[in-house]
Amino acid sequence: MAIFGIPFFAAGLAVILIGLGIIVPSNADEMDGWVWPALVVFGGVFAAVGGGLMFGRRWIILDRAQGRIQDAWGLVVPMKVTEHPLYHFSMIHLLHEPGDSDTAESFPVLLTGATVPKPVRLSAGRTYGEARKIGEQVAAFLGFPFLDKSTDNEIAIPMDRTINEESTAQPIVAPESLDTSPPPLLKCSVSSDNVSTVIDIPGPGFTPRTVVPAVIPLLFVLFVLYQFWGPFDISDAPPPVQVMMVVFFAAFILLPLSAAVVGFLKAAFGRTRVIVNAEGIEIVELGGIRRRTKRIPRKDILGLDYGIQPTKEQVERQTTEMAQQRFQGRSDGAKQIPEGVLRMLQKLALSRGAKGITLKTRAGLLSFGEGLPDDEVKYVYHLVLRTLKSANI
Question: Do the strands 155-157 and 189-192 form a parallel or antiparallel pair, or are they unpaired?
């Protein structure tokens, strides 16, 4: 944030100097008298914003001896301090905020307790590994339990676990796998030997989630052809115009058409191959045309989890918690969102199906097997976890 504040701060100082007459612009004689104080005010606003970004700091001070937590903010030095009694808090939580077009993905670490109306946000790591390391250190310092709530299942991080240097493989923290037998109707194909386990997961097929993104470009192509095919006859046009029209049709017809073809091929033939061994996990996404491979070394895998189809009660609870977070922890937060919007969010959550298996790596979260039946998700999770743990690394 300090880098973003530099241009604001510099521009604000320059405008202030102009308003004070220290820097004289070439058209100073043409400027009205009210402009000069306005420039000082305008420059002061810019300098204040830039200074806040450059020099603004936040401190979280955990004082076990005094039994207090200080949440301070200031410019270079603490200026505003809020104190919380330490006995109000009893637990550390690690969450996951996926982010959107306006905010980046983050992994907040919260200090919370049963009687705390609003948790204290200790940090918001950009990666899962960074956030978990902070949470483990704070939990060890305060002697509080540490819960990983970044995915569907809450996982208690053992007190003796601390993420070491990146060159060392860590013990995998994961829920215990209960279902060890394959379901009667297995969609995946599984092959295993003494070295690795290979799991081929079929694609979702032709569903609304896969067909709609492919149909939209196709409809756009048909619209362009219907609107512009007849009026444009470029046979007698100059060569530059012909070239321009060819580029136009290539951009507005061939590119969307190729996107539609790729979407249909992916829906028809797409599948995911997961290869698990002592070296780590390799995820190969096989579409109709493209092939994408992701390799996660064993030393970067910190945890594993699975997500099944949520129940209606779980979705209602999640949307209520989301509304409470949106409205600063208010118990009536769900009432602040229109009922129709809440119902739509709940229907969307129920229609998504199972979340599949989630790898918790140093860099972040990585999922595969979305949309599989619940019993198959648990079975694939068991295979992956068993193979990783059998490596004894």
Answer: unpaired
